[in-house]
Design goal:
Layout (H helix, E strand, L loop, with lengths): L15 E5 L8 H15 L3 E6 L5 H6 L3 E4 L8 H17 L3 E4 L2 H11 L5 E6 L15 E4 L2 H9 L7 E3 L24 E5 L8 H14 L4 E5 L5 H11 L4 E5 L5 H4 L4 E4 L8 H8 L3 E5 L4 H4 L7 E3 L4 H13 L1 H10 L9 H16 L2 H15 L1
Parallel strand pairs: 1-2, 1-4, 2-3, 4-5, 5-6, 6-7, 8-9, 8-11, 9-10, 11-12, 12-13
Helix pairs in contact: 1-13, 3-4, 6-7, 6-11, 11-12
């Protein structure tokens, strides 16, 4: 009889990972982060499955050999959660994952109910720490914050320091995009680009107001707003009061690089943003960047070395930063070059490797780690 020389606490090199998320629809930053991570892990040799209600990436999952198991996790009607719990139980029994990684609150709570005393270790990622429900993500054996700001916020809200780790977001070399760069859009110059959801947290109204101030000094500047959302109508009305021709709403783009590669400046005027993926996309495209000094944005911009940081909710300061860039071509070129500072830190290989290191850490916890998880879930409830 052979002897297994592997320590019982040593995790396997090739992990079986099950990502659980409410859905996989494209226009959602949490989804895009999960898709990037899952595909990169699969490319690195891990056995990856995804459980969601479905969405837009099935073809991509097939390319990377990822199984996509459909479970409707809608919380209404309430009976649907019971059905989802039963379906997820079957998925876990069939997949037999080493790690269950949950990315949204509903998926985390469903997974926690099934993983408390069973083999799979549970990891949760806090993407939107500004939501009250984010504290429920503490049910994981480990909790991942997508920036250090998120991690510190969750610690203040009661997540134990010994169970939370920071893995900064990054999406350079995203599998969601073709490795062949798209042709840049033909845009009038100077072109200012915004990519994001059209809702108050992103500060779109501040950007539109700032553009009105900017036009007084730079009348040829054109603002392109890429994205959709529930407040689009009111933002269009606001834009009409400022300029009918210098602000263009472009709708959602599956590959915003076509705009980023054509733009002069990328602007992100968020009021709150944990670690926006679009900043790594804008940096990879070589844009000069102006963004607000909130959340994880400074971390994504090397604490201001790779972009200009301004105070949030101040259209006047936003406009002043834009005017300076557009009035000084040398400064604009300098900020384009600075967007590349330490950009390798935003590559997905790093994100995946650090995440897998978190998995391996908890797989080495043994039964004591499972007891800690049970105690944490009991406290959270």
């Amino acid at each position: 009889m052979g002897i297994n020389t592997r320590s019982v606490f040593e995790p396997p090199a090739r992990l079986k990972i099950l990502h659980v998320i409410n859905h996989t629809r494209r226009a959602n930053g949490n989804v895009c982060a999960m898709v990037d991570l899952a595909c990169t892990q699969a490319a690195q040799g891990h056995d990856v499955s995804i459980c969601s209600a479905g969405g837009d990436f099935d073809e991509l999952f097939t390319i990377f050999g990822i199984r996509h198991l459909k479970v409707d996790q809608n919380r209404k009607p309430k009976i649907n959660l019971v059905k989802a719990l039963w379906s997820l139980r079957r998925v876990i029994l069939n997949v037999k994952p080493d790690i269950v990684h949950a990315h949204m609150m509903t998926s985390a709570m469903l997974a926690a109910a099934l993983c408390v005393l069973k083999k799979p270790k549970l990891v949760t990622t806090v993407h939107n720490e500004f939501e009250k429900s984010a504290v429920l993500m503490r049910v994981g054996d480990r909790v991942i914050g997508v920036s250090e700001v998120v991690t510190q916020s969750m610690i203040r809200r009661g997540v134990p320091k010994n169970k939370i780790r920071t893995v900064l977001n990054g999406t350079v070399n995203s599998p969601r995009f073709s490795s062949i760069l798209p042709s840049p859009r033909t845009l009038p110059s100077p072109a200012i680009i915004f990519v994001g959801g059209l809702h108050p947290r992103k500060g779109v109204d501040d950007l539109i107001k700032a553009h009105g101030i900017l036009l007084e000094s730079c009348p040829r500047a054109h603002l392109f707003i890429i994205g959709g959302g529930p407040h689009e109508h009111e933002y269009r009305k606001l834009a009409d009061t400022i300029s009918e021709s210098q602000i263009t709403f472009c709708g959602h783009s599956n590959d915003p690089r076509e705009f980023l590669l054509a733009g002069d400046i990328f602007v992100l005027p968020s009021h709150a943003d944990p670690a926006p993926l679009v900043l790594s996309e804008a940096r990879a495209a070589g844009c000069a960047i102006v963004a607000t000094d909130v959340g994880g944005i400074p971390e994504m911009l090397e604490n201001g070395k790779a972009g200009v940081l301004v105070q949030p909710k101040r259209p006047d300061l936003l406009a002043a930063a834009l005017v300076r860039l557009l009035k000084d071509p040398q400064y604009l070129a300098e900020m384009r070059a600075k967007s590349q500072i330490n950009i390798s830190r935003l590559k997905l290989d790093r994100v995946s490797q650090q995440t897998v290191a978190v998995y391996q850490e908890i797989l080495a916890d043994g039964w004591f780690g499972r007891f800690k998880r049970f105690a944490s879930v009991s406290t959270a409830s």
